[in-house]
Design a protein that fits this description.
The chain has about 375 residues and is of the alpha/beta class. It has two domains: about 130 residues, Enolase-like, N-terminal domain (Enolase-like, domain 1); about 220 residues, Enolase-like C-terminal domain (TIM Barrel). Helix content is about 35%, strand content about 20%. It contains 13 helices and 15 strands. The structure holds the ligand O=C(O)CCC(=O)C1=CC=C[C@@H](O)[C@@H]1C(=O)O and magnesium ion. This is o-succinylbenzoate synthase.
Protein backbone atom coordinates (compact mmCIF):
# COMPACT_ATOMS: atom_id res chain seq x y z
CA UNK A 1 0.00 0.00 0.00
CA UNK A 2 1.52 3.29 -1.06
CA UNK A 3 0.59 6.11 1.36
CA UNK A 4 0.88 9.46 -0.40
CA UNK A 5 -0.68 11.91 2.02
CA UNK A 6 -2.41 11.96 5.39
CA UNK A 7 -4.81 14.72 6.27
CA UNK A 8 -5.91 15.47 9.83
CA UNK A 9 -8.92 17.73 10.35
CA UNK A 10 -10.46 18.88 13.60
CA UNK A 11 -14.24 19.03 13.35
CA UNK A 12 -16.83 20.48 15.69
CA UNK A 13 -20.31 19.11 15.08
CA UNK A 14 -23.31 20.31 17.10
CA UNK A 15 -25.25 17.42 18.66
CA UNK A 16 -29.04 17.36 18.42
CA UNK A 17 -29.22 16.84 22.19
CA UNK A 18 -27.12 17.26 25.30
CA UNK A 19 -25.43 13.95 26.19
CA UNK A 20 -24.69 13.55 29.89
CA UNK A 21 -22.79 10.77 31.66
CA UNK A 22 -21.55 10.33 35.21
CA UNK A 23 -18.37 12.22 34.23
CA UNK A 24 -19.70 15.20 32.29
CA UNK A 25 -21.95 16.46 29.51
CA UNK A 26 -21.52 17.63 25.94
CA UNK A 27 -23.46 19.39 23.18
CA UNK A 28 -20.62 19.65 20.63
CA UNK A 29 -18.73 16.72 19.21
CA UNK A 30 -15.10 17.83 18.88
CA UNK A 31 -12.94 15.23 17.14
CA UNK A 32 -10.34 14.48 14.47
CA UNK A 33 -11.11 13.12 11.03
CA UNK A 34 -8.28 11.30 9.27
CA UNK A 35 -7.99 10.89 5.48
CA UNK A 36 -5.25 8.63 4.16
CA UNK A 37 -4.61 9.02 0.42
CA UNK A 38 -2.96 6.27 -1.60
CA UNK A 39 -3.06 5.01 -5.19
CA UNK A 40 -6.16 6.99 -6.13
CA UNK A 41 -8.23 5.95 -3.10
CA UNK A 42 -8.91 7.62 0.24
CA UNK A 43 -9.42 5.82 3.55
CA UNK A 44 -11.23 7.52 6.42
CA UNK A 45 -10.83 7.16 10.16
CA UNK A 46 -12.13 9.00 13.19
CA UNK A 47 -10.52 9.67 16.54
CA UNK A 48 -13.08 9.09 19.29
CA UNK A 49 -11.07 10.91 21.95
CA UNK A 50 -13.04 13.69 23.61
CA UNK A 51 -11.71 17.21 24.24
CA UNK A 52 -11.44 16.36 27.96
CA UNK A 53 -9.66 13.38 29.63
CA UNK A 54 -12.63 12.14 31.67
CA UNK A 55 -13.68 9.00 29.81
CA UNK A 56 -10.05 7.99 29.35
CA UNK A 57 -6.70 9.80 29.38
CA UNK A 58 -6.65 10.90 25.74
CA UNK A 59 -7.96 14.19 24.34
CA UNK A 60 -8.36 15.73 20.88
CA UNK A 61 -5.07 17.55 21.47
CA UNK A 62 -3.06 14.53 22.71
CA UNK A 63 -4.28 12.52 19.73
CA UNK A 64 -3.11 15.20 17.32
CA UNK A 65 0.25 15.43 19.07
CA UNK A 66 0.83 11.66 19.05
CA UNK A 67 -0.10 11.40 15.40
CA UNK A 68 2.12 14.25 14.28
CA UNK A 69 5.14 13.37 16.44
CA UNK A 70 5.15 9.57 16.41
CA UNK A 71 2.42 7.70 14.57
CA UNK A 72 2.38 9.39 11.15
CA UNK A 73 6.22 9.38 10.91
CA UNK A 74 6.11 5.64 11.73
CA UNK A 75 3.54 5.01 9.00
CA UNK A 76 5.78 6.75 6.48
CA UNK A 77 8.94 5.02 7.76
CA UNK A 78 8.43 1.63 6.11
CA UNK A 79 6.28 -0.12 3.54
CA UNK A 80 2.86 -1.32 4.68
CA UNK A 81 1.23 -4.31 3.02
CA UNK A 82 -1.79 -4.86 5.25
CA UNK A 83 -3.56 -3.09 8.15
CA UNK A 84 -2.07 -5.71 10.50
CA UNK A 85 1.36 -4.20 9.67
CA UNK A 86 0.10 -0.92 11.15
CA UNK A 87 -0.87 -2.69 14.35
CA UNK A 88 2.65 -4.17 14.61
CA UNK A 89 4.28 -0.85 13.76
CA UNK A 90 2.36 0.98 16.50
CA UNK A 91 2.78 -1.75 19.14
CA UNK A 92 6.00 -0.35 20.73
CA UNK A 93 4.20 2.93 21.50
CA UNK A 94 2.43 2.60 24.84
CA UNK A 95 -1.32 3.20 24.98
CA UNK A 96 -2.60 6.27 23.06
CA UNK A 97 -5.09 3.78 21.67
CA UNK A 98 -7.53 6.30 20.22
CA UNK A 99 -4.76 8.01 18.27
CA UNK A 100 -3.52 4.66 16.91
CA UNK A 101 -7.05 3.50 16.11
CA UNK A 102 -7.97 6.59 14.09
CA UNK A 103 -5.03 6.02 11.73
CA UNK A 104 -5.32 2.23 11.68
CA UNK A 105 -9.04 2.51 10.88
CA UNK A 106 -8.33 4.83 7.95
CA UNK A 107 -5.79 2.31 6.64
CA UNK A 108 -8.31 -0.55 6.97
CA UNK A 109 -10.76 1.53 4.92
CA UNK A 110 -8.10 2.35 2.33
CA UNK A 111 -6.98 -1.30 2.18
CA UNK A 112 -10.48 -2.63 1.58
CA UNK A 113 -11.15 0.08 -1.04
CA UNK A 114 -7.95 -0.86 -2.85
CA UNK A 115 -9.02 -4.53 -2.74
CA UNK A 116 -12.54 -3.61 -3.90
CA UNK A 117 -14.24 -5.30 -0.94
CA UNK A 118 -16.31 -3.99 1.93
CA UNK A 119 -14.59 -3.23 5.23
CA UNK A 120 -16.95 -5.73 6.88
CA UNK A 121 -15.79 -8.44 4.49
CA UNK A 122 -12.12 -7.51 4.96
CA UNK A 123 -12.61 -7.94 8.71
CA UNK A 124 -14.31 -11.33 8.36
CA UNK A 125 -17.85 -10.10 8.98
CA UNK A 126 -20.66 -12.56 8.34
CA UNK A 127 -23.85 -10.51 8.76
CA UNK A 128 -25.61 -8.28 6.26
CA UNK A 129 -27.98 -6.80 8.86
CA UNK A 130 -27.12 -5.91 12.45
CA UNK A 131 -29.35 -5.35 15.47
CA UNK A 132 -28.61 -2.13 17.30
CA UNK A 133 -29.50 -0.46 20.57
CA UNK A 134 -29.37 3.06 21.90
CA UNK A 135 -27.56 4.75 24.79
CA UNK A 136 -29.63 7.26 26.75
CA UNK A 137 -27.76 9.78 28.86
CA UNK A 138 -28.53 11.14 32.29
CA UNK A 139 -31.48 13.55 32.14
CA UNK A 140 -32.62 16.15 34.66
CA UNK A 141 -35.56 13.93 35.68
CA UNK A 142 -36.60 10.27 35.46
CA UNK A 143 -39.63 11.45 33.46
CA UNK A 144 -37.33 12.77 30.71
CA UNK A 145 -35.46 9.44 30.57
CA UNK A 146 -38.83 7.69 30.20
CA UNK A 147 -39.73 9.95 27.25
CA UNK A 148 -36.48 9.04 25.51
CA UNK A 149 -37.01 5.34 26.22
CA UNK A 150 -40.49 5.58 24.72
CA UNK A 151 -39.12 7.11 21.50
CA UNK A 152 -36.31 4.53 21.32
CA UNK A 153 -38.77 1.66 21.71
CA UNK A 154 -40.95 3.17 18.98
CA UNK A 155 -37.89 3.13 16.68
CA UNK A 156 -37.49 -0.54 17.51
CA UNK A 157 -34.05 -0.28 19.16
CA UNK A 158 -33.14 -3.77 20.38
CA UNK A 159 -31.36 -2.73 23.56
CA UNK A 160 -31.99 0.24 25.80
CA UNK A 161 -28.95 1.42 27.74
CA UNK A 162 -29.35 4.10 30.36
CA UNK A 163 -26.60 5.96 32.11
CA UNK A 164 -26.65 5.87 35.89
CA UNK A 165 -24.75 7.55 38.70
CA UNK A 166 -25.16 7.52 42.50
CA UNK A 167 -28.43 9.28 43.25
CA UNK A 168 -29.80 8.58 39.76
CA UNK A 169 -29.89 4.81 39.46
CA UNK A 170 -32.49 2.49 41.02
CA UNK A 171 -35.31 5.00 40.49
CA UNK A 172 -34.50 5.22 36.76
CA UNK A 173 -34.47 1.43 36.27
CA UNK A 174 -37.57 1.00 38.42
CA UNK A 175 -39.34 3.74 36.47
CA UNK A 176 -38.56 2.07 33.15
CA UNK A 177 -39.67 -1.36 34.37
CA UNK A 178 -42.92 0.05 35.82
CA UNK A 179 -43.80 1.96 32.67
CA UNK A 180 -42.57 -0.39 29.91
CA UNK A 181 -42.50 -3.82 31.56
CA UNK A 182 -39.98 -6.55 32.23
CA UNK A 183 -39.47 -7.62 28.64
CA UNK A 184 -37.69 -4.43 27.53
CA UNK A 185 -34.02 -5.40 26.90
CA UNK A 186 -32.52 -3.00 29.40
CA UNK A 187 -29.04 -2.31 30.79
CA UNK A 188 -27.30 0.34 32.88
CA UNK A 189 -23.90 1.98 32.30
CA UNK A 190 -22.21 3.53 35.35
CA UNK A 191 -18.95 4.74 33.79
CA UNK A 192 -17.04 3.80 36.97
CA UNK A 193 -19.17 5.92 39.29
CA UNK A 194 -19.46 3.31 42.09
CA UNK A 195 -17.22 1.48 44.58
CA UNK A 196 -17.70 -1.69 46.62
CA UNK A 197 -19.23 0.60 49.26
CA UNK A 198 -22.27 0.76 46.97
CA UNK A 199 -22.85 -3.00 47.07
CA UNK A 200 -26.41 -2.51 48.35
CA UNK A 201 -27.30 -0.41 45.28
CA UNK A 202 -25.77 -3.02 42.97
CA UNK A 203 -27.82 -5.72 44.72
CA UNK A 204 -30.97 -3.65 44.25
CA UNK A 205 -30.19 -3.18 40.55
CA UNK A 206 -29.67 -6.95 40.38
CA UNK A 207 -33.42 -7.45 40.95
CA UNK A 208 -34.53 -5.83 37.68
CA UNK A 209 -33.53 -8.46 35.11
CA UNK A 210 -30.98 -6.19 33.41
CA UNK A 211 -29.05 -7.67 30.47
CA UNK A 212 -25.91 -6.32 32.14
CA UNK A 213 -24.45 -3.59 34.32
CA UNK A 214 -21.63 -1.83 32.46
CA UNK A 215 -18.44 -0.72 34.21
CA UNK A 216 -19.83 -0.11 37.69
CA UNK A 217 -16.41 0.18 39.41
CA UNK A 218 -13.10 1.95 38.79
CA UNK A 219 -11.88 2.49 35.23
CA UNK A 220 -8.66 0.58 35.93
CA UNK A 221 -10.09 -2.26 37.99
CA UNK A 222 -10.72 -5.94 37.33
CA UNK A 223 -10.23 -7.28 40.89
CA UNK A 224 -13.18 -5.61 42.63
CA UNK A 225 -15.30 -6.27 39.53
CA UNK A 226 -14.59 -10.00 40.05
CA UNK A 227 -15.65 -9.73 43.70
CA UNK A 228 -18.79 -7.87 42.69
CA UNK A 229 -19.62 -10.28 39.87
CA UNK A 230 -19.49 -13.17 42.34
CA UNK A 231 -22.31 -11.50 44.27
CA UNK A 232 -24.59 -10.59 41.35
CA UNK A 233 -26.65 -12.67 38.96
CA UNK A 234 -26.66 -9.84 36.40
CA UNK A 235 -23.59 -10.10 34.15
CA UNK A 236 -21.06 -7.30 34.53
CA UNK A 237 -19.86 -5.83 31.24
CA UNK A 238 -16.44 -4.20 31.15
CA UNK A 239 -15.84 -1.08 29.06
CA UNK A 240 -13.16 1.29 30.44
CA UNK A 241 -11.08 -1.52 32.03
CA UNK A 242 -10.34 -3.32 28.75
CA UNK A 243 -7.62 -1.83 26.51
CA UNK A 244 -6.50 -4.94 24.65
CA UNK A 245 -6.94 -8.69 24.32
CA UNK A 246 -4.57 -9.33 27.24
CA UNK A 247 -6.78 -7.26 29.56
CA UNK A 248 -9.76 -9.23 28.29
CA UNK A 249 -8.01 -12.56 28.96
CA UNK A 250 -7.18 -11.56 32.53
CA UNK A 251 -10.69 -10.25 33.22
CA UNK A 252 -12.21 -13.47 31.87
CA UNK A 253 -9.81 -15.62 33.91
CA UNK A 254 -10.62 -13.70 37.08
CA UNK A 255 -14.37 -13.79 36.45
CA UNK A 256 -14.58 -9.99 36.42
CA UNK A 257 -17.26 -9.89 33.74
CA UNK A 258 -19.64 -11.98 31.66
CA UNK A 259 -19.74 -9.62 28.69
CA UNK A 260 -17.26 -7.22 27.03
CA UNK A 261 -17.99 -3.94 25.28
CA UNK A 262 -15.58 -3.51 22.36
CA UNK A 263 -14.93 0.11 21.41
CA UNK A 264 -12.56 0.21 18.46
CA UNK A 265 -10.88 3.42 19.67
CA UNK A 266 -10.46 2.32 23.27
CA UNK A 267 -8.63 -0.87 22.24
CA UNK A 268 -6.35 0.72 19.63
CA UNK A 269 -8.03 -0.31 16.40
CA UNK A 270 -9.86 -2.87 14.33
CA UNK A 271 -7.07 -5.47 14.46
CA UNK A 272 -7.14 -5.53 18.28
CA UNK A 273 -10.97 -5.44 18.24
CA UNK A 274 -10.91 -8.62 16.15
CA UNK A 275 -8.45 -10.22 18.59
CA UNK A 276 -10.72 -9.46 21.54
CA UNK A 277 -13.73 -10.67 19.57
CA UNK A 278 -12.00 -13.99 18.80
CA UNK A 279 -10.71 -14.48 22.34
CA UNK A 280 -14.15 -13.81 23.82
CA UNK A 281 -15.75 -16.15 21.30
CA UNK A 282 -13.41 -18.97 22.34
CA UNK A 283 -14.40 -18.41 26.00
CA UNK A 284 -18.15 -18.15 25.35
CA UNK A 285 -18.18 -14.45 26.30
CA UNK A 286 -20.51 -12.38 24.08
CA UNK A 287 -19.37 -8.94 22.91
CA UNK A 288 -21.09 -5.83 21.59
CA UNK A 289 -19.88 -2.65 19.97
CA UNK A 290 -19.84 0.40 22.20
CA UNK A 291 -20.39 3.93 20.91
CA UNK A 292 -18.46 7.15 21.43
CA UNK A 293 -21.07 9.48 19.88
CA UNK A 294 -19.28 9.03 16.57
CA UNK A 295 -19.79 10.99 13.37
CA UNK A 296 -20.79 8.90 10.37
CA UNK A 297 -17.20 7.82 9.73
CA UNK A 298 -16.69 6.19 13.13
CA UNK A 299 -20.26 4.90 13.00
CA UNK A 300 -19.53 3.15 9.68
CA UNK A 301 -16.49 1.46 11.26
CA UNK A 302 -18.72 0.30 14.14
CA UNK A 303 -21.23 -1.16 11.67
CA UNK A 304 -18.46 -3.10 9.91
CA UNK A 305 -16.98 -4.66 13.07
CA UNK A 306 -20.46 -5.51 14.40
CA UNK A 307 -20.94 -7.82 11.40
CA UNK A 308 -18.53 -10.33 13.04
CA UNK A 309 -20.26 -13.42 14.48
CA UNK A 310 -19.63 -12.99 18.23
CA UNK A 311 -21.21 -9.51 18.30
CA UNK A 312 -24.37 -11.21 19.53
CA UNK A 313 -25.63 -8.35 21.74
CA UNK A 314 -26.98 -5.19 20.06
CA UNK A 315 -24.47 -2.34 20.33
CA UNK A 316 -24.76 1.43 20.87
CA UNK A 317 -24.62 2.33 17.15
CA UNK A 318 -27.88 4.24 16.82
CA UNK A 319 -28.84 6.04 13.59
CA UNK A 320 -26.91 9.15 12.45
CA UNK A 321 -30.10 11.22 12.49
CA UNK A 322 -30.44 10.69 16.22
CA UNK A 323 -27.24 12.70 16.71
CA UNK A 324 -26.83 15.04 13.74
CA UNK A 325 -28.94 17.36 11.61
CA UNK A 326 -26.24 16.93 8.95
CA UNK A 327 -23.77 14.04 9.16
CA UNK A 328 -20.44 14.03 7.31
CA UNK A 329 -21.26 10.90 5.31
CA UNK A 330 -23.81 10.25 2.60
CA UNK A 331 -26.20 8.63 3.13
CA UNK A 332 -26.21 8.72 6.93
CA UNK A 333 -26.19 5.47 8.89
CA UNK A 334 -29.96 4.94 9.13
CA UNK A 335 -32.27 2.17 10.32
CA UNK A 336 -33.46 -0.04 7.45
CA UNK A 337 -35.95 -1.87 9.69
CA UNK A 338 -36.88 -1.33 13.35
CA UNK A 339 -33.61 -1.43 15.32
CA UNK A 340 -31.59 -2.71 12.37
CA UNK A 341 -28.80 -1.32 10.22
CA UNK A 342 -27.62 -2.72 6.90
CA UNK A 343 -23.95 -3.61 6.53
CA UNK A 344 -22.79 -1.91 3.31
CA UNK A 345 -21.46 -4.12 0.51
CA UNK A 346 -19.62 -1.36 -1.34
CA UNK A 347 -15.81 -1.16 -1.02
CA UNK A 348 -14.44 0.15 2.27
CA UNK A 349 -16.76 1.72 4.82
CA UNK A 350 -19.38 1.95 2.08
CA UNK A 351 -20.37 5.57 2.63
CA UNK A 352 -19.24 8.69 0.76
CA UNK A 353 -17.77 11.64 2.63
CA UNK A 354 -19.89 14.79 2.35
CA UNK A 355 -17.08 17.30 1.74
CA UNK A 356 -19.41 20.26 2.10
CA UNK A 357 -20.44 19.11 5.56
CA UNK A 358 -16.80 18.47 6.50
CA UNK A 359 -15.94 22.01 5.34
CA UNK A 360 -18.76 23.41 7.44
CA UNK A 361 -17.54 21.74 10.66
CA UNK A 362 -13.74 21.92 10.16
CA UNK A 363 -11.87 24.31 12.45
CA UNK A 364 -8.28 23.20 11.81
CA UNK A 365 -6.43 20.97 9.38
CA UNK A 366 -2.95 19.79 8.46
CA UNK A 367 -1.47 17.62 5.75
CA UNK A 368 1.47 15.23 6.09
CA UNK A 369 3.54 13.63 3.31
CA UNK A 370 6.40 11.14 3.40
CA UNK A 371 9.87 12.66 3.10
CA UNK A 372 11.10 12.31 -0.50
O1 LIG B 1 -24.48 6.84 21.61
C1 LIG B 1 -23.31 6.47 21.74
O2 LIG B 1 -22.45 6.62 20.87
C2 LIG B 1 -22.93 5.81 23.02
C3 LIG B 1 -22.60 6.80 24.00
C4 LIG B 1 -22.07 6.22 25.29
O3 LIG B 1 -22.75 5.50 25.95
C5 LIG B 1 -20.77 6.63 25.69
C6 LIG B 1 -20.09 7.56 24.96
C7 LIG B 1 -18.90 8.11 25.42
C8 LIG B 1 -18.44 7.80 26.66
C9 LIG B 1 -19.29 7.12 27.58
O4 LIG B 1 -20.13 8.01 28.20
C10 LIG B 1 -20.15 6.11 26.85
C11 LIG B 1 -19.93 4.75 27.30
O5 LIG B 1 -19.29 4.59 28.33
O6 LIG B 1 -20.30 3.75 26.68
MG1 LIG C 1 -19.61 2.54 28.80
Amino acid sequence: MKLERIEVQQLQMPLRFRFETSFGSTTIKDFLLISVHGEGAVGYGESVAMPTPFYNEETTETVWYMMEKFLIPKLFSQPIETPEDVDRLFAPIRRNNMAKSALEGAIWDLYSKQKGISLAKALGGTRSLIDVGISIGIEPTVGEVLQRVERALADGYKKIKVKIKPGFDVQVIQGIRERFGDSVPLMADANSAYTMEHLDIMKELDQYGLIMIEQPLAHDDIIDHAKLQAQLKTPICLDESIHNAEDARKAIELGSCGIINIKIGRVGGLTESKRIHDLCESHGIPVWCGGMVESGVGRAHNVAITSLPNFTIPGDTAASSRYWDLDIIEPGVELVAPGQLAVPEQPGIGYTLNQQAVGKYAVRSASYRPAK
